[in-house]
Design brief:
The chain is α+β, with helices and mostly antiparallel strands and 343 residues long. The protein folds into 3 domains: 67 residues, Uridine Diphospho-n-acetylenolpyruvylglucosamine Reductase, domain 2 (2-Layer Sandwich), CATH 3.30.43.10; 112 residues, Uridine Diphospho-n-acetylenolpyruvylglucosamine Reductase, domain 3 (2-Layer Sandwich), CATH 3.30.465.10; 102 residues, Uridine Diphospho-n-acetylenolpyruvylglucosamine Reductase, domain 1 (Alpha-Beta Complex). Helices cover 27% and strands 29% of the residues. Strands 6-7-12-10-11 form a 5-stranded antiparallel β-sheet, covered by helices on one side. A 4-stranded mixed β-sheet has the order 1-2-5-3, covered by helices on one side. Strands 13-19-18-17 form a 4-stranded antiparallel β-sheet. β18 and β19 form a beta hairpin. The longest helix has 19 residues.
């Protein structure tokens, strides 16, 4: 393991923002995780687990501790009848796993195509898109317990999966390091195209039963039309979660905004559309302030147009939150995780 000092973190994030890490190391194995954790303890420093950097905003002062950049690689494929198990290292690029599963003709991950980030982060964040969440395909998550020096497999009923949520964002944050994730896929399946964008895309093309590759191609087109090009702009994608409220709260909200998008979230809860609120109530879609702004084709996306600081992004985010609460009494919670002393 090579430990480096004062490594700029901006290049390791899709926001292209962030000061230096006091110490930084690439993690290729379990032994290197143990070495890095021991190093941090010896120095009395905190650790931060960094994957693909697609869902973080790192402070301008950086991280005064040890950054473990997870690059654990490898995908293993196992077949049991019509079921396929794909076990991937936490550092595998998420979309590489999806691409390979589609090329092999397996069902289960195609709706999660073209999402930036790593396999480990897919479990931490319980990534979701176009009607599918990662937890629906996860068989188990392998983690390293840094406190007890143990490797264990965690099954879905103990993962506390929720909307963009898991146990690794709470009780196990900072003390458990995901090393591998195993996914259950299928040889035979059917497309999930109930989500509005996909339904409209295929109805226009009169495709009734799209293949996995056709779903993946559709999502490339849909996402490229709505989201910034990461090669040109810095962004973490959707900055806020869609707010989940009680049925009673939703009724009051919809009395004032009857045209607002909303979805059943199960039980006594309704999921409101954060981008609809930002766009149609706050009128903040496509605005720009200095080096930052909201994307003109998707109000939920905050953008670094070049040279932006973390403080600029946070200031814009706080303004959106304040105005949303002031005008709708709805709290918008960040999906993006803030990292560093200023956070």
């Amino acid at each position: 393991m090579e430990m480096n000092e004062s490594v700029p973190l901006a290049p390791y994030t899709t926001f292209k923002i962030g000061g230096p890490a006091r110490y930084f190391c690439d993690i290729h194995s379990l032994n290197e995780i143990k070495e890095a954790v021991a190093f941090a303890r010896e120095k009395h420093l905190p650790t931060f687990i960094l994957g693909g950097g697609s869902n973080v905003l790192i402070s301008d002062s950086g991280f005064d501790g040890v950054v473990l950049h997870i690059v654990l690689s490898g995908i293993e494929w196992e077949e049991e009848g019509d079921t396929i198990f794909a076990t991937a290292g936490a550092g595998v690029v998420w979309d590489e796993l999806v691409r390979e599963s589609v090329e092999r003709g397996y069902w289960g991950l195609e709706n999660l195509s073209h999402i930036p980030g790593s396999v480990g982060a897919s479990a931490v964040q319980n990534i979701g898109c176009y009607g599918v969440e990662a937890c629906e395909a996860i068989e188990w998550v392998e983690e390293y317990d840094t406190e007890n020096d143990l490797v264990r497999r965690v099954f879905p009923h103990d993962c506390a999966f929720g909307y963009r949520d898991s146990v690794w964002k709470h009780d196990r944050k900072g003390v458990r390091v995901i090393t591998r994730v195993r996914f259950r896929l299928a040889k035979n399946g059917s497309p999930k195209t109930d989500y509005k964008d996909l339904r409209e895309y295929f109805s226009d093309k009169t495709i009734i039963h799209p293949t996995q590759q056709e779903v993946r191609d559709a999502l490339f087109t849909i996402r490229s039309q709505k989201l910034p090009d990461l090669a040109r702009y810095g962004t973490a994608g959707s900055f806020f979660k869609n707010p989940v409220v009680t049925t009673e709260e939703a009724v009051q909200f919809l009395k004032r905004f009857p045209e607002a998008l909303h979805f059943s979230s199960g039980g006594n809860e309704i999921k409101l559309s954060a981008p609809w609120i930002i766009d149609h109530v706050l009128n903040l879609r496509g605005i720009r302030k200095g080096n930052v702004g909201t994307w003109g084709k998707q109000a939920l996306v905050l953008v670094n147009y070049g040279g932006a600081s973390a403080e600029e992004i946070k200031t814009l985010a706080h303004e959106i939150q304040f105005r949303a609460h002031e005008l709708t009494n709805i709290a918008l919670s960040p999906e993006v995780v803030f990292i560093g002393s200023e956070s």
